[in-house]
Amino acid sequence: MHNKPLVTVVIPFYRDVKYLFAAIRSVLTQTYKNFEILLIYDNECKDDLDQIKKFIKLKNKYTSSLIKIHINKKNLGAGYSRNIGIKKSTTKYIAFLDSDDIWLKNKLETQINYMEKNDLVFSHTSYFIINEKNKIVDFRKAKKFINFEYLLKSCDVGLSTVIVKLQFLKKNKYYFPKIRTKEDFVLWLKIVHKIDFLYGINKKLTYYRKTNSSLSSNKIISLINGYKVYRKYMGFSIAKSIYFLFILSINFIKKNFKNKKKN
Question: Which residues contact residue 37 at a Cβ distance below 8 angstroms, ignoring those fewer than 6 apart?
């Protein structure tokens, strides 16, 4: 395993330690062992910080993996917290995992092997969607190739499935923008515009947790930020931004309806 490239797994955390601990355990049990975990603690009140520190201290005793914690002075949001992870990391690859999501045990091994074999800058995978009780309620399939034009109309990339070459992000100064939802969508658009294609692996290797309290579940916020993606970050006209937001929304509804029929 010493000749395997090192991966930094960046986990931003705001609240709900039970989900966080499950996320960390899913990394520690990976078949691919050459990784480090960087937890970005983003809860201003710090009421669960001691509990998390104890958990990390215990896990660092029994695993060769290194778990580090960075504590934000104030709440910055998930996107900016991931940016801190990008800036602090020095490994070949960086992987993103939200604190309420879970990886299957062969996730890193499958993806890193695929990227190394094909010399890829970016990859993502298919994933399950689960609820608060860990029940699978839906899924998303990763397309093998996604170009800029396709991504503009349908964001099919699950954040917790993504692995990127770190130096590529730093060299191009690609970071998550200051927006509370769809910040990942903006970054993927910048990346695909640079490299032409995002490569996907059609294997479900992640459980994405959908909760009623999540920002992404708020339809109004999602629509507002969807508009911002096109108008502010892509520089489209008002009419063009509304058009693409409409297409994005229609494709989202279609995906949900199609998968629920299959289930």
Answer: 8, 9, 11, 24, 27, 28, 65, 66, 67, 68
Q: What is the pLDDT of residues 149-202, one digit of tens each?
A: 999 999 999 999 999 999 999 999 999 998 888 999 999 999 999 999 999 999
How far is residue 130's CA from residue 137's CA, in Å, rounded to a whole number?
5
Q: What domains, with CATH codes, occur in the chain?
A: 7-212 (3.90.550.10)
Sign of the dihedral through C-alpha 29, 30, 36, 42: negative
Q: In the Cβ-directed half-sphere of 224, how many Cα atoms lie within 13 Å? A: 10
Give me 175's structure tokens. 């970071």
Tokens coding 33 = 């062992």
Q: How many CB atoms lie within 10 A of CB 241?
A: 19
Is pTM beyond 0.90? Reply is: yes
Tokens read off for 226? 């969807």
Beta bridge partners of 207: 102, 128
What distances in angstroms separate CA 147 from CA 139, 150, 155, 190, 244, one per listed residue? 21, 5, 11, 11, 15
Among 204, 201, 200, smallest CA distance to 136 is for 204
Amino acid symbol at 163? I
Per-residue pLDDT of 81-101, as tens digits, reads 999 999 999 999 999 999 999
Residue 55, SS3 per DSSP:
helix
Q: Which of 234, 229, 91, 225 is nearest to 163 (CA)?
A: 91
How is residue 172 written in tokens?
């191009």
CA 206 – CA 240 distance, rounded (Å): 34
